[in-house]
Amino acid sequence: MPRDPLLTAGPGRHHPFLMLCIRRSLAGIAATCAVSLLVFVGTDLLPGDAADVILTRSASSGGGTPEQLAALRAELGLDVPWPQRYLGWIGGLLQGDLGSSLVSGRSVTDVIGSRLGNTLVLAGTATVLLVPVAVGLGLWSGIRQGRPGDRVVSGVAVAAQALPEFVAATLLIAVFALIAGLLPAVSLVPPGTSPLARPEILVLPVLSLLSVMAGQSIRMVRARTSEVVRADFVRVARLHGIPERRVVWRYVVPNALGPALQLLAGSISWLVGGIVVVEQVFAYPGISHELVQAIISRDVPVVQALAFAMAVCTLAIYTLADLLVVALVPKLRTGG
C-alpha cells in the first residue's frame, strides 16, 4: 500500500510537513503559556480590585473602613501574592476549573457559558460568510485587475473598510430597521433559546461585521492575486498554451491564497474585538455584556477567562492559517 507523501519522505526520515505541524503545535503551546502570564499580570495591574467595588456599592459612606477592606480581600483571596495566585489559576485551567466570580460567587463557567453560545453563533456565521466572499471577490477582482468590475469591487471595499463597525451598524439600523422596517433594530434572544430560532435578528449584526472585515480581506486577496497573475511562471504557462481556466486554478489560486490566508486570519481574529462593539450596539446577549460588567466591577476571574479564551482563539486561527499555507504551496510543503 503506498505511503502518504504528506506524512513520510522515505525510511527513517520525517516529511517536512509533519515536522512543521509539530513545530507549529509546540510554538502554539509556548505562545499560550506566555499569553496566560500576560493576561494574568495585565488584569492584576488594573487599578482597584473587586473588594473596593463591593464595599463601594454596599457602604453608604462610599468605601468602608480599611479593616473591612483588608478582611474582604483576605476572604476573596486577593491578599495572596500574585505568583501563587497565578499558579493556582493555571492549575485550575488545566483541570477545567475557571474559578468563581468575585462579585456574584457563581462559577465562571456558568457566567460565560450562558452567553458564549450566542457569541459563537454570531462569530461563526460571520466567518462562514466572510471566507467565500473575501476569497471569491478578491480572486475575481485580482484576475480582472484594471477592468471596470475590478474598480467597482475595489472602490466598495475601500469605502466599507473606512467605516468603523459602530458607524456601519448604525447606518444598517437606520436603513433596514427604521426606514425600511424589514429587520429588527435590536437582536434580543429569549433566555434558553438559540439565535438560530430567529435568524432575522442575526442579519444586521452579521452585516455589520462583514462590512468592515470583508473590505480589508477583499483588498488583501486582490493585491496578492494581482501579483501572482503578473508572475513569470504564469506567463510561461500561458505561452505554453495551457487553457486559462487551468492556469487560474492550477497556478494562480494556490499561490495567491497561500499568503492571503495569513492576512485573512488577521481579519477573522478581528472578530474578537469587533464583535464586542457590535453586540453592544444591537443589545445582542453575547459575552461582551459580561466582559464589560466584569471589567467595571474588577471581577478578575471572569475578565481573565474571557481574555484568555479570546487570545487562544486568535492563536489557533493564525496557527491553522500557517498550516493551510504550507498545505497549499508545494514548495513549502516539501521543504524546498
UniProtKB/TrEMBL annotation:
Residues 116-321 form the ABC transmembrane type-1 domain. One of its GO terms (cellular component) is plasma membrane. One of its GO terms (biological process) is transmembrane transport. It comes from the Bacteria. CDD domains: TM_PBP2. Pfam families: BPD_transp_1. It is found in: Cell membrane. Gene3D superfamilies: MetI-like. Belongs to the binding-protein-dependent transport system permease family. This is ABC transporter permease.
